[in-house]
Design goal:
single chain, about 425 residues, Aspartate Aminotransferase, domain 1, 17 strands, Aspartate Aminotransferase, domain 2, 2 domains, EC 2.6.1.19, transferase, globular, binds pyridoxal-5'-phosphate, 7-stranded mixed β-sheet, (S)-3-amino-2-methylpropionate transaminase activity, pyridoxal phosphate, alpha/beta, identical protein binding
Length: about 425
């Protein structure tokens, strides 16, 4: 009998075959319990199978699964649009939905170009914006996302992100450098008249869990206003309470013209979106965006339940509080090991940077510790250009006890791998 196998294109961070999930916990087919501090790469904001999300999705499955939104309209979508108004930054009162983060990034790109009539995008070094070819063209967190399928999309320029760890400078100096290089780029490579938008993450995600800062975002805003360039903030990973505020950009007073959201929005159902002002959206060409599956009715119902759960269970506050607890515990481990040179992040988006004795990024040790933690029942992911950062990104429902348990496993895993 003919049989097929899964393609080698996929690479898996753990050997776990997940059978079921419950909150922060995952269970494999032998019913082994894991603390899932990956949350499906920051997606299961309300935890695995939150009863209210399950109930809403099940009800919708039995009512209407696919109401194709360029053919007919459906109530879960219309209600979600209204409810997004409660959480979106002021002035962003028009929403468009797609399925994945990459698609939403492309939606923002199309809108930016159509609205300004300008071709170029300026992205920031270390940023991750997705894997479709246009999104990959805007991605500079690692060559693994770009190599071997060139040519990429034209019209992309890259300016530095104020990353103190990478440059080895204080944050002030890294910010001065990033803004000065942005000015130089606008003067020498992409004139303001050709530049549609700046595209930036509030916290570099895949690029190593590096937070931006207030002065950097003020500098972007100032230049955007001066030159009529749009500020597009990619909140795919940082949104929906992940950083201890509803949007990551709130930490830095970021005032985007376009906000991109996905991941935590629907607790695991594929749903993404962009938001902008009515004036800006009116400049898009009608019918220029859409898609077969965008704003799927079950995904929208799950997103509505997600918004309810985040509000009713105070998950944004929990993210801030459990994040502070976790960061403190991880810092205590780092204090005991020279190999961990930095513990950083906001809310429940925390990275541990590994460096070798020469101060070079140490992806091998980071991966060894991540694997050791998985063996001990704690699922984690790496990130950073060299895979040198181990990131903690649990569901926002994580409890104080689960944070303590994860920190204890982490301490054991680090001890097992790293000689002092
Ligand atoms: C900041 C950011 N933008 C865009 C994406 C792409 O999202 P997706 O994988 O759903 O296409 C991601 C995914 O990790 C992300 O973290």
């Amino acid at each position: 009998m003919a049989s097929a196998q899964l393609s080698e294109i996929l690479k898996q961070a753990t050997g776990v075959l997940a059978a079921r999930g419950e909150g922060v916990l995952l269970f494999d087919e032998d019913d082994r319990r894991y603390l899932d501090f990956t949350a499906g790469i920051g997606v299961t904001s309300t935890g695995h199978c939150h009863p209210r999300v399950v109930e809403a999705a099940q009800r919708q499955v039995g009512t209407l699964i696919h109401a194709q939104y360029t053919t007919v309209m459906h109530r879960p979508l219309l209600t979600l649009v209204e409810r997004m108004g409660e959480v979106l930054p002021e002035g962003l009162d028009r929403v468009f939905f797609a399925n994945s983060g990459s698609e939403a990034v492309e939606a923002a790109l199309r809108l930016s170009r159509q609205a300004t009539g300008r071709p170029n995008m300026i992205a920031f070094h270390g940023g991750f914006h997705g894997r479709t070819v246009a999104a990959a063209s805007l991605t500079t967190s690692g060559t693994k996302f770009r190599s071997g399928f060139a040519p990429l999309m034209a019209g992309v320029h890259v300016a530095p992100f104020p990353d103190p760890t990478h440059y080895g400078w204080p944050v002030e100096q890294a910010t001065d450098f990033a803004l000065a290089q942005l000015d130089y780029l606008l003067q020498t490579m992409s004139s303001p008249a050709d530049t549609a938008a700046f595209l930036v993450e509030p916290v570099l995600g895949e690029g190593g869990y590096v937070p931006g800062n207030e002065r950097f975002f003020a500098g972007l805003r100032e230049r955007a206003d001066k030159y009529g360039i749009l500020l597009v903030v990619d909140e795919v990973q940082t949104g929906f309470g992940r950083t201890g505020k509803f949007w990551g950009g709130e930490h830095f007073g970021a005032k985007p013209e376009i906000l991109i959201t996905a991941k935590g929005l629907a607790s695991g159902f594929p749903l993404s979106g962009i938001a902008a002002s009515s004036e800006l959206m009116a400049k898009a060409w009608p019918g220029s965006q859409g898609g077969t599956y965008g704003a799927n009715a079950v995904a929208c119902a799950a997103a509505l339940a997600t918004l309810d759960v985040i509000r009713d269970e105070n998950l944004v506050e929990n993210s801030a509080q459990r994040g502070a607890q976790l960061k403190e515990a991880l810092q205590l481990v780092a204090d005991k090991h020279d190999a961990i040179t930095d513990v950083r992040g906001l809310g429940l988006m925390i990275g541990n940077e590994f460096r070798d004795a020469d101060g070079k990024p140490d992806g091998a040790t980071a991966t060894a510790v991540q694997q050791e933690a998985a063996k001990r029942g704690l699922l984690l992911l790496t990130c950073g250009a060299w895979g040198q950062v181990v990131r903690f990104i649990p569901a926002l429902v994580v409890t104080s006890e689960q944070v303590d348990e994860a920190a204890a496993i982490w301490a054991d895993a680090v001890n097992a791998v790293v000689a002092r």
